[in-house]
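Anyone up for a design puzzle?
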């Protein structure tokens, strides 16, 4: 494991693990400990990505975690979402529900999917307004540094060309400074219509865990963590810098270019 501090004093830990199974085991243990810390005195707000991340969470649905986590204190949000009905095969909510949420006792009222039957722009605005309302009602913390909602933990996956959430390299959404949630109608990863948290919202979180596995990710991992990291036109993943800690969970294939 490597530990470094960036200029923003973000603690960055890199766990280089042998296999995807080891990543799932290490991620579950990390989330369990963080959940214990937050739920001892309040709620634990968790933001989920789509993609392989949901399957990587599988250990949380098993012994010992399934019966020892205080699930009733968890609040669930979506880092990005495809603008499709919630029961559509492309929906991140459906993916998360089938693979994780239906297997743990988080109250339904603590889960915040996007609203259906809206355009991408309307869906992004509606989600942003809902987050702002939750901050006003003190159900979500706010970052004193930025005023944006301050989620306790974001669980983030990375695409092979270094995208996170639905913030893609050559798309302007990655440069958004004011909005909390924005939209894209030409996502290079299908389907095209999506909403996504913006970087300022992601970077207002307390903790971010990046779970990345497989050979496809190796080049982007090298760009982000290698000795000669590309600072000229950084990949979206290189701009992830939460308030307290950034923890990478990588398997052998993902670190093969390091
Ligand atoms: O809706 C989505 O597509 C995801 O939220 C997306 O941002 C995902 O996390 C990355 O593309 C990594 O996906 P994989 O883990 O499947 O490589």
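Challenge accepted. My sequence:
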């Amino acid at each position: 494991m490597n530990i470094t501090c960036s200029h923003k004093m973000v603690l960055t830990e890199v766990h280089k693990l042998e296999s995807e199974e080891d990543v799932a085991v290490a991620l579950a243990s990390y989330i369990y400990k963080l959940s214990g810390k937050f739920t001892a005195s309040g709620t634990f707000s968790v933001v989920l990505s789509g993609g392989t991340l949901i399957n990587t969470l599988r250990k949380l649905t098993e012994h010992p975690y399934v019966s020892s986590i205080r699930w009733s204190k968890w609040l669930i949000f979506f880092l990005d979402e495809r603008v499709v009905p919630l029961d559509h095969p492309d929906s991140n909510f459906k993916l998360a529900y089938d693979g994780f949420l239906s297997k743990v006792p988080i109250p339904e009222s603590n889960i915040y999917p996007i609203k259906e039957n809206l355009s991408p722009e309307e869906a992004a605005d509606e989600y942003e307004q809902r987050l702002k309302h939750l901050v006003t009602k003190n159900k979500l913390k706010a970052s004193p540094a930025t005023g944006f909602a301050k989620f306790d933990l974001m669980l983030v996956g990375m695409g092979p060309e270094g995208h996170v959430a639905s913030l893609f390299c050559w798309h302007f959404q990655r440069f958004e400074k004011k909005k909390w949630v924005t939209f894209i109608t030409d996502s290079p990863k299908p389907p095209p219509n999506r909403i996504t948290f913006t970087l300022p919202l992601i970077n207002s979180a307390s903790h971010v865990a990046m779970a990345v596995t497989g050979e496809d990710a190796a080049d982007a991992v090298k760009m982000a963590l290698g000795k000669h990291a590309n600072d000229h036109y950084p990949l979206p993943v290189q701009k992830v810098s939460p308030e307290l800690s950034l923890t990478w969970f990588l398997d052998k294939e993902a670190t093969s270019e390091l």
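A detail worth pointing out: The CA atoms of residues 72 and 249 lie 26 Å apart.
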